[in-house]
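Collaboration report, partner site 2.

Our partner group contributed sequences for two proteins of shared interest, and the home lab folded both. The records are reproduced in the order in which they were received, starting with the first partner submission.
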Amino acid sequence: MKKILSVIFAAALVASMFVVGAVSTSAADDYTVYFEIPDDATLEKIGLDVWGSKVSVHAWNDAGNLNGEWPGAEATHVEGNIYSYTWTADSVPTGIIFNNGNNGVQTQNIDGGETVSKTDASKTVKNPAIEWGKLYKATGEGIEDPNGNTNVVVAATDYKTAEPSATESKKEEPSDDKTVATGDTSAAWVLLAVVAASLGTAVVMTKKASSKD
């Protein structure tokens, strides 16, 4: 009887570890943003030089700079012209700027505020707010900041790491597979149910053993 209980509790412990892992993965994804380097034609249109291949991220909140002094920390290359940066839960920024490593090209502030032109105070542009998991792309417009620099105006859009090919899409059939992907918040609930069921079984079996005694 003791061996059976040991196996049940061991299974519950393993399941609980998966719960923690699933929740942790989901939390990490909550603080990632993506950025696509503008193409040369877009930058030329607003009077800026080419971006190059370097992407730095300047970030801040009420406590000050989060990635060091300007131009900030280097972003991680994802694919093509897309880069990403992830913050931890204890250092979430309220504003960020993508730039090409202090080489003369940068985005507008991404903080939900407004960029006011130095030469024309009547000209303002609403800054996009930070939206986690989104891809920031150039809109084709530029705005002059208070320092007289032309900044790249960006907007948030959905980002997918991979698009299925036309052939794969046609072959794909509906699946009855109920497996939950790692990082999905529903995974935590499924695994918690497993833990609860395991513990419930252990209690019932313990009571039965006690009644036999």
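Second partner submission, folded after the first:
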Amino acid sequence: MDHDATGESDLGVLLASMSPVLNGGSYVFVLDERSGDHDGAEDAIVTVAEPEGRTLVLPRERAESLGLPYGFVASWITLQVHSALDAVGLTAAVAAALTRAGISANVVAGYFHDHLFVPEERRDDAMSVLAELSARAVATAERSGTRDRA
């Protein structure tokens, strides 16, 4: 499998073309201290190994079916732009915009895209904030004559 791993690193282009998509469903963060064939990891959107235990981000229904306790219920937003893993500023710009709107975000970088987990009840607000951030980047690129890159 040959994938172009370079990705985009220009912050203006990243913001102008991030194309956020709201994935369906509700997601929860759980601490999974169990191990076995049906521990939920096979359904995890994200898995993080920490000294205290393994964190799984699961569809809420799956966590409930496994009896795993959770608190934070999130919506999952994917930024469709192929961002370089060493790109500087995308996470900070997105986090700052969401912070100004009073929206928390848990950010995970995948090989191709960045993923945000925001409070479920604020998902529409988060999508609006991201659309506005992208529109401002497009307008800035147009004013500076670099729109053809975005």
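Feedback sent to the partner group on the second submission included the following. The radius of gyration is 17 Å. The chain has four helices and seven strands.
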